[in-house]
Automatic annotation (TrEMBL):
The chain crosses the membrane at residues 21-38, 58-78, 90-110, 116-141, 178-199, 211-229, 235-260, 281-304, 316-333, 345-364, 370-395, 416-435, 478-497. One of its GO terms (cellular component) is plasma membrane. This is Drug resistance transporter, EmrB/QacA family protein. It is found in: Cell membrane.
Amino acid sequence: MPSKTEHPVTPPPDLPGPDAATLRVLLITVATTLFLASTGNTIVTTALPRIVSDLGGLAYISWVVTAFLLASTVGAPIAGKLGDMYGRKIVLQVAIGVFLLGGLICGVARSMEVLIAGRFVQGLGGGALIVVSMAVVADVLPPRERGRVQGALSSVFGFSTVVGPLIGGFLVQTVGWHWIFFVNFPIGVVAFVILTRTLKSSTEKVPHKMDFVGSALLLILLSSVVLIANLAGSVYAWTSLTVLFLLALAPMALVGFVSAERRAAEPVMPLDLFRIRNFQAANSVNFLVGMAMFGTIAFIPMFLQVVKHVGPVSSGLYLVAMMGGLIGTSFAAGRVISSTGRYKVMPTVSTAVLAGAMLLLTTINPETPLAVITLYLFLVGAGIGPTMSVGIVSIQSAVPREHLGVGTASANMFRLIGGAIGTSVFGALFTLGLGRHVQPLMPQVQEVRELTSAMVDRLEPAAQAAVLQGFSDALMPVYFVGAAVAAIACLASTRLVELPLGPVPRDRRGTPAE
């Protein structure tokens, strides 16, 4: 007999929502807020060399990115829960303030330690903005209309992945790296003002009891997982005391978290959600697709620079093809959901395309034309796009109304964790491959992972060709594993249940935001 949580709780009757003009402004502002948060991480990548030259601290440079990723991952589910309890408006307002405060700390930083602290603060705000913004859509639109908007919002992630580094590079070259943190202030202030005027405050006066113990244990659990993925095998050896401590801490935090959630009056991540089939299936797909997506982003630019002699900036631009596929199919999937109310088959087809694209990437070598690589990257993006919009809609249609924020946050949380673990696993595979195929050819290079095109160019033609082929061979296992991961995601997507989304509303008006 199916669990009671297998089907969504029937929501209360729709109340008068925002008028069409207000709704349009609100959704544009939500999209802008989402862009603000999602570019927070990518905008800094092209500025890292200049930051190190000014502040020093080369040993800690990876933490400039890791701190933001860690904070956004651990902060998102807690922010989602706070939005469910106290309303989206107040949480969004606070999140914008926290994000801008983090940017201010980073902008005025005079040491790498202060910069990393600012990035952590910025990440807390960014993670909250991403999940609560998407939950607002479920508040102001009925289920049938959410697909169209969620598809557009999901495409913002792909757009920011390309645009962020370009904006960062332009600002570094013109006005200095400090301005990559200040440039968001006008956008943040405008978004704050518009949200204050258009998003309704929660009128609920029911007292809530925050699950502090569960929140702390969830923070420890997610932090341990992300840190293991980012540090083990690269910064620290797997046998180091730091990694062993984290490996012991993660399962202890998991056991403690499950125990705390069973006793909590208002758990931060209700365990009943994990009994909902769509919650299980969608987040399994999110996790696995996150692994494939971030693995591709991490290694293709390196291949293009070393093997195909493409410049650093141009190599990043090749990811535009991948993001073009992601944006286009995510938007199209949202339109299909809104027009037909159907969504079950789309992630199954798209993850099959992703698996095929990953297999195609295993064939690239020094002779592969750049146009062919561009096509393969487009197919990777096309395989990822529909899973993002469908994942959010399928979760929001299945979880009870009072858990919309937590449910929405889970999609982002599992995707980021998958990305962190995938990058770590693929990085380990790639390092092993370099040690096997390239290191014997270049014994003079101490750290083969730091191989550059300039080093290869200095080799004799025969040795150069062998090294480039070895580099390609080292990447092959990465994309074979990526194809296997995508195939598992395809199987997991078949467990989705296509719940009815209701008719298309005549006036396209939904429930008010809290």
